[in-house]
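Dear Dr. H.,

I hope your travels went smoothly. While you were away I took the liberty of generating a structure for the chain from your last submission, since the lab meeting agenda had it listed for discussion. I wanted you to have the full record in hand beforehand rather than looking at slides cold. The sequence, exactly as received, is reproduced here:
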Amino acid sequence: SKATFVLKGMTCSSCSSKVADTLKATTGIILSAVDYQSGRVEIAYNSKKTSIAKIEQALISTGYQLVTQPS
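The corresponding predicted structure, in token form, is as follows:
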């Protein structure tokens, strides 16, 4: 499955790396692409191993504001 989120507050490549590292450590995440300039986080995940709610929790745990629901 795929989902796209938008996070507010990322200002540099270190910010996007923090989000990417958090997602990499999250069970069920297959691939992620994080763009700090737009705030977009595109994720490919295994829906049998994780859920949108768990992905949202991981994103929120990074300290950035989740501003959109997945699309």
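Two observations you may find useful: The chain has a mean pLDDT of 95. The radius of gyration is 11 Å.

With kind regards,
E. W.
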